[in-house]
Specification:
The chain has two domains: about 210 residues, Rossmann fold, CATH 3.40.50.300; about 200 residues, no CATH class. Helix content is about 50%, strand content about 5%. It contains 21 helices and five strands. The longest helix is centred in the middle third of the chain and has 16 residues. The chain is elongated and about 85 Å long. The two termini are about 40 Å apart. About 35% of the residues are buried.
């Protein structure tokens, strides 16, 4: 299969479950921002250590942006290319001392760089050795480091001056990239930030942090006498908000990920005109950020393999969008196959009352998109509302196309759902008689047996 959901857009591959590394595969417009940020890191003039932060919510592409910045830094000419030291404190959180691991990483990377003055490597090694001697328990490490690096402490003060002197001699800028701070516990975050404060006056060192600002502020809120916002301002010199992807970029990302999931689906099975109607009149309404895409794609990744080649891909994507974004409507559909696809034919007034009762529970902005999806998925609704006749041969066509509106195919779409309540025709007609009473109708049609 080749880009069956891509709407004639040419896009490179993207991993469903990992961040990107190559800016050529950028789908969200982060590459340009990353390039300019990398240029600034290399060209800016600052008197001492500098901390830059990029804020973004979870699943917003922060790690991808960081990877792009590193890519552009690595493409710089030799006389401008910085030494890049990646550090992910989350990998050591709660298991190893973050301060110790940080200096170990710093020492290891510098020891592999032939251009780094020997004096700097030696001083950092000495520094790391002292850090390694900090006594546990772990909870006291932060206080021990603070005392160790206190300028009044003679040994630490002298060592800081030596490291500072060698950094002045070092021509290449050192860029330390740090990800996943927002996953740390409060004590780990404080310990990491103490490192930045202790090395604040180390010339030619730049820290680039990416994290969820709101989460970090909330995490440290109860641990500081000052507010979390003020605490961050004391640590970070410059901050940016991660650019928010526009709707077109989000669509491109979603369509590409759909292509990855439905890779064995034939183009013949995809009616592009019908896909366009269902997507833009219904599903598109719910795709507003990367988190929406992640939730949706994660669900399809689990549910589609169980019904592969047994359902219509377009219908399945639409049904699963309701599972994710409107679970109440999904449950109603699951529990009422005979009303939606069976032989029970309510009158136009009864069906309108049913639809209005179902739709009434939704947020105002969701009502029309969901109604559109229901009408596109279930021609019986459209037929009764439009007072048109459905031929029996259409049921055969729907069965052949594996559509959800085929009574035989319908249950396949809900294999990973709890069993729907089985209702007889007489029970259905009794329920239809209650559509004028919202409370009685709701208690009748939505009550599930206890298991």
């Amino acid at each position: 299969m080749s880009h069956i959901f891509m709407a004639q857009t040419e896009i490179n591959d993207i991993s469903v479950d990992s961040s990107l590394v190559d800016p050529e595969k950028d789908l969200l417009g982060h590459a340009n921002f990353a390039k300019y940020l990398a240029d600034s890191i290399c060209k800016m003039t600052f008197p001492e250590g500098f901390v830059i932060a990029v804020y973004g919510s979870w699943n917003s592409g922060k790690s991808t942006l960081l990877n792009f910045v590193v890519h552009y830094l690595q493409q710089k000419p030799e006389d401008e290319k910085p030494i890049i030291i990646p550090f992910n404190p989350w990998l050591f959180s709660g298991h190893q001392n973050i301060t110790r691991r940080f200096f170990d990483q710093l020492k290891n990377v510098l020891s592999q760089e032939s251009s780094v003055p020997k004096g700097l490597r030696e001083r950092v090694a000495d520094f790391a050795a002292i850090i390694s001697d900090i006594p546990l328990p772990y909870a006291q490490t932060g206080k021990a480091l603070a005392a160790l690096l206190d300028d009044k402490d003679k040994e630490a003060g002298e060592l800081k001056e030596e490291v500072e002197d060698t950094l002045v001699q070092q021509q290449r800028r050192i860029v330390i990239t740090i990800d996943d701070i927002d996953r740390l516990a409060a004590e780990d975050i404080k310990q990491l930030f103490r490192i930045f404060k202790a090395m604040r006056n180390f010339t030619n060192v730049v820290y680039l942090l990416v994290f969820n600002k709101e989460v970090v502020i909330k995490t440290i809120a109860d641990t500081k006498e000052i507010s979390g916002e003020a605490y961050l301002e004391k640590i970070i010199q410059v901050s940016f908000d991660l650019p928010v992807p526009n709707k077109i970029s989000l669509r491109r990302l979603l369509f590409k990920k759909l292509d990855n999931i439905f890779t064995e689906t034939s183009k013949i099975e995809i009616n592009q005109a019908r896909w366009s109607e269902i997507y833009f009149q219904g599903i598109d309404h719910f795709i507003n950020n990367i988190r929406d895409i992640t939730r949706f794609i994660n669900t399809l990744t689990v549910t589609y393999p169980a019904v592969k080649h047994e359902v219509n891909p377009i219908d399945f994507i639409a049904i699963e969008s309701l599972r994710v974004f409107s679970p109440n409507i999904y449950s109603i559909i699951h529990q009422n196959p005979h009303i939606l696809v069976g032989e029970v034919n309510p009158s136009i007034d009864e069906l309108n009352s049913l639809l209005n009762t179902w739709i009434a529970q939704l947020p105002v902005e969701d009502k029309q998109p969901i109604k559109n999806l229901l009408i596109h998925l279930f021609p019986k609704l459209k037929s009764i509302l439009g007072n048109t006749y459905l031929h029996k041969k259409q049921e055969l066509e729907w069965h052949e196309q594996l559509r959800v509106c085929s009574l035989e195919i319908f249950p396949i779409y809900f294999r990973l759902s709890l069993s729907a309540v089985e209702l007889s025709n007489s029970q259905i007609k009794a329920i239809l008689g209650l559509v004028g009473d919202v409370d009685k109708f709701g208690s009748s049609v939505l009550v599930m047996p206890n298991y």
